[in-house]
Amino acid sequence: MDRKATNYIIDDREQGLFRVNRRVFTNPECLAEERRRIFEKCWIYVGHESEVPHPGDFQSRNVAGRPLVLVRGDDNIIRVLLNTCTHRGAMVCRQKSGNAKTFQCPYHAWTYNCRGQLIGTPGEDSYSDGFSREERALASPAQVGNYRGFIFACFDRTTESLYEYLAGAREYLDLVADQSEVGMKIIAGQQSYSARANWKLLVENSYDGYHGLPTHQRYFTFLTDIGVQVRGGDMNRPPHQMAADLGNGHAVVEYASPWGRPIAHWVPPFGEHRKVHFEQLRTKFDERFGPDRAYRICETSRNLGIFPNLVINDIMAITVRTFYPVSPDYMEVNAWALAPIEESAEDSALRLDNFLTFLGPGGFATPDDVEMLESCQRGFANKEVMWSDISRGMKREHPSITDELQMRAFWRRWNDLMTTPQIRRARKAA
Amino acid sequence: MSAEQLPSRSEVEDLLYREAALLDEWRLEEWLELLTDDATYQVPPTDVPEGDARNTLFIVADDAIRIRSRVKQLLDKSAWAENPHSRTRRMISNVRVLGADGDDILVTANFIVNRMRYENADIYVGRYNYRLVRHQGSLKIRERRVILDNEALRPHGKISFIL
Question: Cα B139 vs. chain centroid, distance in angstroms?
């Protein structure tokens, strides 16, 4: 791999120039390094606690290239288990989701309970005294953490706690989690798709305010057609918008948005009959949090990137989106909708309807994002153009959402992890 | 509706084959004429193929307004995911007239839709569930539900055309 740290990015704060070497999107060796230095070092999103509400509930997931099982034990503890029999390797959980008291390996019938403990090894008298069932329990990632229902795993025991790792991103996760008094839930239905593009292009795209108008022109035309006022807004408030580096590679953009928000921002297409209901919802937030925080929760949108591969976009609905590179030029994407548990069936239907106007592989926007990412990836074949430019707003005191501060926050962290000498990391670990 | 009032399979096939041709030829305005004013178009998620769009996150759940908006967008240059247009070729088979539900005629058919773009060839496989109605003598589509057998949209990435 390249030994010169300066080869991935150019971060010239004096001149206000930021460049990313396009090799990081195309080089298989770079991806191998990312797997080792980023995906095995950072906290990676696994799932949401609402997806395993009852003892024995499980979800099979592919996380950081590994088949895992997210499972709630009969002791009500949520665990993440590595889905491989400790005997000879077969996957012990073969269903996508369900409820189970035990996981039995179909190969030789080793059996584990839903806490991952090994409880059955047929023909046990053939094993020596040195054999221990305890030691052959299903393995877990080095660390598992839960922040307000979002469950993460980390394969490195020297990494800081999830709480510390999330740093400034916690404030924005709170703005999402606070939308319910009893908890948030993932709604049934997983959008499982892909893009023929490098995974970091989707990171950049997910909180990129600059591409909004040119890439998504048709969405804004659609909004206008159905009666949403795209420009203007509340004249009594200054236009709210900001981009922030949240530390550890996390970043966010937050802005007053024209579209309706099922969490109490009414727009005409929602129907006159819902107006009073939305005002009541909003009043509840005012009472719980005061007018400023209530305004933020209800009327502003947030595109939040949690390093390295989790996006929570709280926009015209809330999407939780994670992705993982299969190869430098291909990623798998999974996305879900998040909603307050107590939301009424009617409000939930409205939320899902609003979600689909923009989001997902059949929405009026996401397919165009995928198109742009794939177009970039094809363009990278022109190796003569070595650098992408991510300099927008670099000299501004308060970069806007159409600047590129959020991407620079990601890239600086990415570069640190990719270039820190390994030997020093090993010493620190010891 | 009595069994004698149900359309013949060949009459239904004529409609579905005509629909397939209009979609493959990007004659989307003419395709809209095959729909009732209140028609819906749905693609359930691959993991909940029998789901209900009111409580399940679908891939597509268009009402009458959104279908027409989708067509308008697709025929405009700024629907980048379909500019340039995909080439598609639909194979419709195993057409069955299942019966009636009130005025609705229930029809199912299998499909393979090949989508070619930028020298990638992606295959969508599944079945259509239709609710048809007879309107001024001819059959119209009231509900069009596209149930994918694909376990994920991989490597397709999107359903940007009308599936």
Answer: 15
CATH number of the domain encompassing residue B115? 3.10.450.50
Cβ A196–B81 below 8 Å, yes or no? no
Closest Cα of chain A to B106: distance in Å? 25
- The answer to whether A357 faces chain B, any CB pair under 8 Å, is yes
Going by the DSSP 8-state scheme, the letter that residue A344 receives in this structure is: -
Residue B60, both tokens:
């597509």
**How many CB pairs lie under 8 A apart between chains A and B?**
129
What's the CA gap between A120 and A123, in Å, rounded?
9
Q: Which stretches does DSSP call E strand in chain B?
A: 35-43, 60-62, 87-101, 104-117, 120-135, 138-148
- Specify the number of domains making up chain B: 1
Structure tokens at B96: 């069955």
A198, A352, A366: which to substitute to probe chain B, counting the most B Cβ within 10 Å? A352
The model's pLDDT over A347-397, given as tens digits with 9 standing for 90+, comes to: 999 999 999 999 999 999 999 999 999 999 999 999 999 999 999 999 998
Question: Which among B46, B54, B160 has the least Cβ separation from residue A345?
Answer: B54
Q: Could you tell me where the DSSP H helices lie in chain B? A: 9-24, 28-32, 64-74
Block residue for tokens 């707003």: A393
Q: Is the pTM of this model over 0.90?
A: yes
CB-based contact B66 A217, cutoff 8 Å? no
Give ipTM to 2 decimals. Answer: 0.96
Q: Which of B57, B68, B160 to mutate to test the interface with A (most CBs of A within 10 A)?
A: B57
Instruction: Tell me which CATH code domain A178-418 carries.
Output: 3.90.380.10
CB A228 within 8 A of CB A409: no
Nearest CA in chain B to A319: B57
Q: Mark yes or no for CB contact A191/B57 under 8 Å.
A: yes
User: Is the Cβ–Cβ distance between B153 and B159 less than 8 Å?
Assistant: yes
Q: How far apart are CA B44 and CA B147, in angstroms?
A: 6
Q: Do B152 and A348 touch (CB under 8 A)?
A: no
- Which residues span the domain enclosing B56? 3-148
